[in-house]
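Section 3.1: Structural characterization of target chains.
Under the original work plan, the team committed to producing a structural model for every single-chain target entering the pipeline before any wet-lab resources were allocated. The record below documents one such target. The sequence was received from the expression subgroup and is listed exactly as submitted; it comprises 158 residues.
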Amino acid sequence: MYAWTSWTRTSPYREGTKCLTIRWHERTGTPVPPDPTDSQWARIEDLLRSRYRGHHFRSALDLRPALTGMLHRLRTGILWRDLPDRFGAPEKVRWRQRTWLADGVWPEIVKLLNEEGLGTPVLSYAAGPQLAIRTVLDAEAPRSPQDGPGVVNPVKIS
């Protein structure tokens, strides 16, 4: 059985649930910044080197494409497993993003990248229209005077 803690490798990944980074962006209202320029990347690399030891940079994961993949995923809403290969192994990119968020580095990176104010909102799963289901039974239901003629009371699902 998995030990469920917020920031350990032992916590299970449940596909289809919002990741912690998406939740953070939604909760704080922080937009997803554009991909880093060369000068921004140099500043991000300095930030990372000030916070992490050398082993953080010796992995097979190239951090700049990984960061770009993290931002791409937040903008498009794709699942981790669908992350294109050019960004790195999805499991490693996901783990690095969770590490940065847990350590408080992710907000600093996003703030640095959003200095020009060109960010876009994180793709929200709640952006779809409200669902109304009508059935044959609705036609037999009495109409409310506020509905007007010919309008069936919709069943709302939340």
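The helical segments are 20-28, 38-51, 63-76, 90-102, 105-113, 136-140.
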